[in-house]
């Protein structure tokens, strides 16, 4: 359908991707009807502070709101909050209140749901929503011990937060080295050091058998682990249950072309954590659960539906704030075959802070990771984007030394 024929855009998922899609539609001149359907009662809010400032208590809940309530009137969007989409057919979406909304374009921004362990008791926490964060914060307020299953970014940030409160922290990780799949063993080792140097206990290669009646964790090696608070932070599953009857393949997230059109589904688009956009560099659909990726995809889809100019391609980016420093990664680490230290000596046993590492495929830069070195890392962004050679990278390192 041509942009000028689109008269109603329906965005499913009132989070970061949903809101940014609405804003991009308007900023690209779309002046038709927009509806925003969100399962939560809250207006769109930001998730990174849920494991950082909100959990620490330095921010109140109202500070995570992405926009003030009156901004939605200014955007001319009708929000259906506390309402879940339950089905899609070309041109229409069914809602859990029995209503059906007809639309010329539907954008899916339903994010992920926190993965749980089998038979996980309700007393065990997960962290994905504002309500999850407030519940965990209240529990930590009176806790002296915390067990975290999963040393991913959310687990590490909560561990960092709890250590700041003086709580005794144990982190259980299935892999031999945390983050090994995302960053490789050496960089994962730096993340592990941050955890351990904070005084947290890190147990790797740990299998979980389940829970006993008291809610204690039963480990595969026969151990039983108890704590005042337990958090399971083992990633998320794309929230696509509501599309299960639609005939669309949802096994790998919503597979899209390189501009966010869902494969084989007319008038359907997807952005954010739920979407597996075609990645020309990797040569496959790729799902990224990162803030910047969501914002960029929403900008692109809003522009495409409104008939605006597509934004310029960017370099993937994520950050995590933990143990007093910012961990950052620009680029695609997946094809890397080797790495070189560009600054700092964390990989040689020195302080992790200040370490910047280049990830290379043969002699081409594919990603740069930094630990407490934000200004330096940013300087490599363009080199990652252009696929710089090792010579160019070393030249930059010498300039910044
Ligand atoms: C605790 C935490 C910390 C994070 N920290 C960082 C960080 O430091 N750096 C970084 O790069 N990224 C971070 N992220 C990731 C980042 O927040 C996400 O990438 C981003 O929120 C994804 O936006 P989204 O719109 O795809 O999904 P979401 O923001 O999750 O929004 C999806 C919305 O859709 C709603 N929904 C689901 N199903 C339905 C349905 N059937 N009908 C209607 N609505 C539905 C959900 O209720 C939800 O409100 C963090 C995430 C979390 C949870």
From TrEMBL:
Origin superkingdom: Bacteria
Keyword list, A-Z: FAD, Flavoprotein, Oxidoreductase
Record-annotated Reductase C-terminal domain positions: 317-391
Residues covered by the FAD/NAD(P)-binding domain: 8-298
Coiled coil (residue ranges): none
Named cofactor requirement(s): FAD
Record has Flavoprotein as a keyword: yes
Keyword Oxidoreductase found: yes
SUPFAM superfamilies found in the cross-reference section: FAD/NAD(P)-binding domain, FAD/NAD-linked reductases, dimerisation (C-terminal) domain
One Pfam family matching this protein: Reductase_C
GO cellular component, one term: cytoplasm
GO MF terms, alphabetically ordered: oxidoreductase activity, acting on NAD(P)H
Entries under InterPro entries matching the protein: FAD-oxidoreductase/Apoptosis (IPR050446), FAD/NAD-bd_sf (IPR036188), FAD/NAD-binding_dom (IPR023753), FAD/NAD-linked_Rdtase_dimer_sf (IPR016156), Reductase_C (IPR028202)
Protein name as it appears in the record: Ferredoxin reductase
Organism lineage: Bacteria, Bacillati, Actinomycetota, Actinomycetes, Pseudonocardiales
């Amino acid at each position: 359908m041509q942009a000028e024929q689109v008269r109603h855009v329906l965005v499913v998922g009132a989070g970061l991707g949903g809101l940014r899609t609405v804003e991009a539609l308007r900023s690209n001149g779309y002046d038709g009807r927009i509806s925003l359907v969100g399962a939560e009662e809250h207006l769109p809010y930001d998730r990174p502070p849920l494991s950082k400032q909100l959990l620490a208590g330095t921010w109140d809940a109202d500070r995570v709101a992405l926009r003030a309530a009156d901004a939605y009137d200014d955007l001319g969007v009708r929000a259906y909050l506390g309402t879940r989409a339950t089905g899609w057919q070309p041109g229409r979406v069914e809602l859990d209140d029995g209503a059906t909304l007809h639309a010329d374009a539907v954008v899916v921004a339903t994010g992920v749901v926190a993965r749980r362990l089998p038979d996980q008791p309700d007393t065990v926490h997960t962290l994905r929503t504002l309500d999850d964060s407030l519940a965990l914060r209240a529990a930590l307020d009176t806790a002296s011990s915390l067990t975290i299953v999963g040393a991913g970014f959310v687990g590490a940030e909560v561990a960092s937060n709890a250590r700041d409160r003086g709580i005794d922290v144990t982190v259980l990780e299935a892999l031999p080295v945390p983050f090994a799949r995302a960053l490789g063993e050496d960089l994962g080792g730096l993340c592990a050091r941050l955890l351990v140097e904070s005084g947290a206990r890190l147990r790797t290669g740990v299998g979980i058998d389940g829970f006993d009646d008291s809610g204690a964790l039963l480990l595969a090696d026969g151990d039983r682990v108890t704590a005042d608070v337990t958090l399971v932070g083992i990633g998320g599953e794309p929230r696509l249950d509501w599309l299960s009857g639609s005939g669309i393949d949802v096994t790998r997230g919503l597979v899209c072309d390189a501009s966010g059109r869902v494969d084989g589904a007319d008038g359907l688009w997807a952005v954010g954590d739920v979407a597996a956009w075609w990645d020309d560099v990797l040569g496959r659909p790729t799902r990224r659960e990162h803030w910047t990726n969501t914002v960029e995809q929403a900008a692109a889809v809003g522009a495409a539906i409104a008939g605006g100019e597509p934004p310029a391609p960017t370099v993937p980016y994520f950050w995590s704030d933990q143990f007093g420093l910012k961990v950052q990664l620009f680029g695609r680490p997946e094809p890397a075959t080797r790495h070189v230290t560009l600054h700092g000596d964390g990989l040689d046993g020195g302080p992790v802070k200040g370490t910047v590492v280049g990830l290379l495929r043969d002699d081409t830069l594919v990603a740069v990771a930094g630990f407490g070195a934000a200004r330096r890392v940013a300087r490599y962004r363009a080199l990652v984007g252009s696929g710089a050679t090792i010579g160019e990278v070393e030249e930059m390192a010498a300039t910044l030394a």
